[in-house]
Fold this sequence. Notes:
Blueprint: H1 2-15, H2 19-23, H3 28-56, H4 59-83, H5 87-102, H6 111-114, H7 124-130, E1 138-141, E2 145-148, H8 149-160, H9 163-167, H10 171-188, H11 190-199, H12 203-219
Antiparallel strand pairs: 1-2
Helix pairs in contact: 1-11, 3-10, 4-5, 4-10, 7-8
Amino acid sequence: MRASIFAAGLWLLMQAVPAVAQTADPIEPFNRAMYSFNDGLDRVALKPLAQGYAAAVPLPARVGFGNFINNFRDIPNVINNLLQGKLGEAASDVGRIALNSTFGILGVIDVASEFGLERHNEDFGQTLGRWGVSSGPYVVLPLLGPSTLRDTAALPVDYYTGGRHLVIESVAVRNSLAGLEVVNDRANLLDAEKALDEAALDKYVFIRNFYLQRRQNLVYDGNPPRPKGDDDVWDETDAAPDAGVTKKE
């Protein structure tokens, strides 16, 4: 039942994707080949590992580990909110880190959300988009999956401002946490994958459009500019908030 609802929600969301999001894929042959490579690797390695992990690790433990990782993720959220001039959100994220690191036992329990401090999902790609940098063409990266030219260029900054690099000195510990994080995240997507298989005739196109729509919504905090008509050209720079960029006529 939940899978069917999720599939229906994804399908309705994709109907609202702007035309540019559905066509901004000039290197589609390469992207499809890379998607096939990633999908094959997932099927033979990552998915079976995630299934075994989900069967062996109780849900409360998986949720606790996810909360622990999110506590590290809140550090770059603070940095990018500051870079975007969103001081209130940055202060809220600082409060989240303080509460969860103490009363939440290093973040295992998400105490901050109970106090009304919601997470703000921010990264440097969103910061660039906030200040008017266009997303550029869609690209599928090996192992990492969906991205855009802008978000790919932002990856080094995201890597070096990641919370674990600022807190944990041991490379071995950081790598172990990163590996477990990947498996934990993949295990959380097992149900969603079933819904995707039911909803999509072309999974590549479905994932591409969903990713581009989601990134657009994240850049504009859920309030993206209205797209122009189908015959007009539109991209994220048409209404970059607080960047002094206005919509083209």
